[in-house]
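[Automated response] Your request has been received and processed.

Submitted sequence:
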Amino acid sequence: MARKAPENGLKVHMRRGFSLRSAVVMFVVLVGLSVVFQSLASSESSETPRDGRKTDDPVSTPDALIPAQGAVGIQVRNTEAGAPAFGPEEVRDYFASTDPPYWDSTAPRPQIENIEFLSALEVESRLGRSIDRPEGSRMCLVTIRGQFVPPLPPGVQAQGRPAPDTAMQLVFDGQTGNLLVFGFPPPER
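Generated structure:
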């Protein structure tokens, strides 16, 4: 009684090998497709700035082709080309609902001292440093006054309490409302 099992066993083994190879090929194809779709999605999202405009939209302002920069800040109320994106009231609303950087929360809330809408060139002249925006870009320079506790380098101890009447300047992009830079002006002499 001889068996023919070796032939049948060989066929079963070959079928398993084929299905294993098929699974590996399918896996490689799926991984390849996911890489292609991810790269398409990332290239599509990099063409749209955070404020929702497409980079090829015709806008007459100098900021038209510059992607939004900085931390999310003031809520923009108007996105029409050439029109102011926000005004003093939106700046006040921002500071009413957002704590300024380095604010000493044990002290009274800082007060807005000045809100100015200037060109990037004028802001750079006032700050004495670059804000990395085209000269004609519309900026909002806000000066607030209050008590702040800036971070100190490791190993450096604060000498007493922070001054209660310190000015801080914050620069917002006039089109996107994003907070670009902030800091303390040099002491007046």
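Summary generated for your ticket: The chain has two domains: 7-46, 58-152+163-189. The chain has three helices and four strands.
If you did not submit this request, please reply to this message.
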